[in-house]
Amino acid sequence: MPRRFAALAQVNPLGAQRSITHLTLIAGFASTLFWPLTAMLEAALGWRQVYLVFAGLNLLVCLPVHLWLARVSRQRQAMTTTSGRTAVAPLVVGAEAARVQVLMLLAFALLGFASSAILVHMVPMLAALGLGATGVLVTTLFGPAQVLSRLVNMQFGRSLSQPALAVIAAAAMPTGLVLLVLSAPWAPGAALFAILFGLGSGLSSIVSGTLPLALFGTAGYGRRLGLISSARLVVSSVAPFVFALVTAVTTPQLSVTAVAGVGLASTLCFAGLWALSRRGGRLVTEAAQ
Questions:
Q1: Tens digit of pLDDT for each residue in 142-152?
Q2: Is 198 helix (H, G, I), strand (E, B) or coil?
Q3: pLDDT at position 287 over 80
């Protein structure tokens, strides 16, 4: 996904934020469509043939589209360079930009930890909290909530700054976890947790692309996406193991509460970014005047 965000920013810098929202909305339906399709193909053809079908789709459909996007991206970059225009101006500049980048990486890493720890263990976690078979039904609300968050953001999120949207996305996850711990094994409370966690996850996939663009502008955008992706992947890879270990030596309630604390820390980091971006925006405006 980060590579796609970078391509969108190169093709249409000024409209990249809206394009990223549209892309994540479409991607939200990918599992909904391809999980049952894959099951049908596997039953009809066998798993080896399914891999060949998907490899063919990547070569015959995806590869030409990516080559075309790369060509368009180079043309747009040449036009921007010739005109001498800066497509997206940064909100933070100078020495403060380095501090903001570190804080942004920390925020996304903590959010990635909370997301990965819960998603990998969601079904057994709900069972351990006393929900049993109901927990499986509850998890089905997660995907639609992700898509819903992107739809709502596309329609009503235009007036929100990206740092503010990041705070909302991060806050939804620990809020859902706290509600789960307080209400378990009450099924409606677990359902509300799944919806809030899905909303936060859906919005976080958007702000992972739009926030660095809003804070730092177009210059170096691809590199910053790579840093964010690396930080999240490294932390997310160890999160399920850490969560399982803490659950084994303590209780499910305590381990979920600990993850909620990590989510809260991420929210505070994003809140700090929001405050710094507002100050940086005022400084940039004053300098322009």
A1: 878 888 887 77
A2: helix
A3: no
Q: Which fold has domain 95-288?
A: Growth Hormone; Chain: A; (1.20.1250)
Distances (CA, A) of 107 to 103, 117, 163, 177: 6, 16, 11, 18
pLDDT at position 12 is 57
Q: State both tokens at 271.
A: 């809140």
Phi first, then psi: what are they for 100, rounded to 5°? -65, -40
Helices (H) and strands (E) in the chain, counts: 13, 0
Q: What would the DSSP string read from start to end of 190-220? A: HHHHHHHHHHHHHHHHHHHHHHHHHHH-STT
What's at 13, amino acid-wise? P
Say which residues have a Cβ less than 8 Å from residue 31's Cβ, sequence separation at least 6.
143
Neighbours of 246 (CB within 10 A): 17
pLDDT band at 35 (very low <50, low <70, confident <90, very high): low
Which pair of tokens denotes residue 125?
């976690």
Burial class (CB in 10 A: 0-12, 13-18, 19+), 201: buried
Q: Where are the domains of the chain?
A: 2-83, 95-288
Contact, 214 vs 277, CB < 8 A?
yes
Q: Which residue has the tokens 């920390």?
A: 106
By CB atoms closer than 10 A (0-12, 13-18, 19+), residue 102 is exposed
Of residues 133 and 288, more confidently modeled: 133
Q: What is the dihedral of CA 146, 149, 155, 159, to 10 degrees?
A: -140
Q: Could you tell me the two tokens for 52?
A: 């060949």
Q: For position 8, what pLDDT does the model report?
A: 58
pLDDT of 242 higher than 90: yes
Q: Distance between CA atoms of 91 and 58, rounded to whole angstroms?
A: 38
Residues 141, 194 contacting (CB under 8 angstroms):
yes
DSSP assignment letter at 13? G
Q: What six digits make up the tokens of 206?
A: 């958007």
Position with higher pLDDT, 256 vs 88: 256
